[in-house]
Amino acid sequence: MTAFSAVGNLPISTVTGDPVARVAGHASLADTARAMVADNVGAMIVGDDDTPGALISERDIVRAVASGMDLNTVRAVDVASTKLVWCDADATIDEVATQMMDRYIRHVLVERDGVLAGIVSARDVLGVYCSEAELDFS
User: Fold this and answer.
1) pTM for the whole thing?
2) What is the rounded distance in angstroms from the CA atom of residue 27 to the CA atom of residue 74?
3) Which of 125, 117, 127 is CA-nearest to residue 100?
């Protein structure tokens, strides 16, 4: 694979510094949306298990709104995605960006030594490339 840029060769772990945000599976979608706003994140792990089984994103909540679901009664676990995509913490930013594009997804779970180390978003990856572009124009 050809590298997109110099920063693309950095490990993805360089952009996964924040603790993983979580919401209880029984939390309502309204509570989940409030938690996302409070934590300033676009996706959260659903449940407290060491190995996550589901991820809920802003997009999942928007789909629920669009389909007329009651955000106060529908639970996070009922709309969360269970098709989780993982990468190793040592994967490059370019590799993860390609994985996101190939699978048309916005969030990838990052693991180190079999343990969830973070979640990386398309915005995180884009931010790395934009930072490099700003330096190139300086």
Assistant:
1) 0.87
2) 8
3) 125
